[in-house]
Every structure is written in C-alpha cells, then in structure tokens.
Amino acid sequence: MDDRPTLALKRGAADAGGEFRSPALERLVRALARLPGLGRKSATRIALQLLRGAGDPAEELMTALAEARLHVRTCGRCGCLTEDDPCAVCSSASRDATVVCVVALPVDVLPFERAGFYRGRYFVLGGLLSPLDGVRADDLPFARLLERFDVDGVREAILAFDASVEGEATALYIQRLLADRDVRLTRLATGIPVGGSLAYTDEATLLRAFQFRRSL
Ligand SMILES: [Zn+2]
Prior knowledge:
CATH topology of the largest domain: Dna Topoisomerase Vi A Subunit, Chain: A, domain 2
Number of helices: 9
Largest sheet: 5 strands, mixed
Bound molecules: zinc ion
Oligomer: single chain
C-alpha cells in the first residue's frame, strides 16, 4: 500500500464542481486552482494526474520545484530571473550597459535573448501601471530604474511593453520621468499585435519592431 491520499470521490465531483471527500486531495486541488490560468476543472485533472500518473510525476515536480526555489533568484541589477546575481547579461562585458530594454515581466526578456540580435541590457519592472488593478507608480521600481540609468550612463531606453492600455500608461509615465535626462527614449514599433503578448512574439516580428522602434 502506498500512503498517497485515498481518492474517495463523490460521484462526478470534479465536473460538478463539488468537493472531494479527501481533505488532502481537496487542498491540493484548491492550491492548483489558485495558479494563473487554471480553473477548478483543470486543477482537478492535474491533481489526479500527479497522484496517479505513470512514472510518479509528483516526485519529479516536487524535486524540480525544490531546486527552483533553492536556486532561482532575481538579479539585483536588472530584475531578470537568474541563478547568479548579477545575471549573465548584467555581468557580460560584451553587453552595452548604456542601452537598456525596459520590460514588464521577466518572461518578456526571453524573445530578445532567443532572437539574439539585442546587445544591450534589461530592466524588469515587474508589472505595468494599472490603476484599475491597483498597480500605481509607487508599486513599481521606478526609483531603481532612474538609479540604474544614472550609474550606467544610459543613453537609450527601449520600452518593450505589450500594446495595451497599461503598456501605454507605463510608457507615458517613464517618458515624463526621463524628461529632464539626456536619454533617447524609444518604443517598439507596431507589429506586436494589439493585446498580443510580447513574450510570445516570434523573432522576425520582434526584430522588425525593434528596427523600426520610434522615438518618444
Ligand atoms: Zn541582470
């Protein structure tokens, strides 16, 4: 016998949105359902797969999660996710510290690094201004952004935000913030579809958007 939770299900519990009789299983489903993009139905499917799937996927997930928690950190300079602080981009002598690409989330760095044409550095804001969601200027590290600009003598900042209301608001805020500094401020050209996500933009589109970036 194994000690995994008994799958004592109420009939049709998963589909009907009811609760499992096993408190342990119910807790697992609820924890999974809190993850972005997962509803209760998907969470239930994943929970059952983890507990009863071939090859003990739960063990693999627990190991991967433990290692990621242990090793992954945020780069103190740029905010990218890394195992070394400063990250490889910030500590590379071949990357131009005076050109900074400002992005919303760590995942937004990936298409640039995948495409390989960009030789500057990054600054991850950790979000975009969104008064409706309660994200205000005080919640984002704009002070640290300015400090980075001053320390590194940044001469160009490329704003690479999704084409959204939040992206526009954040670009406008940074434009005002940099008004009295001698920094060329550019924004990725159109090409990234409105409402589309930068993180999943293909390389050709990203390169075109970068080459035709417009000054603000
Ligand atoms: Zn870094």
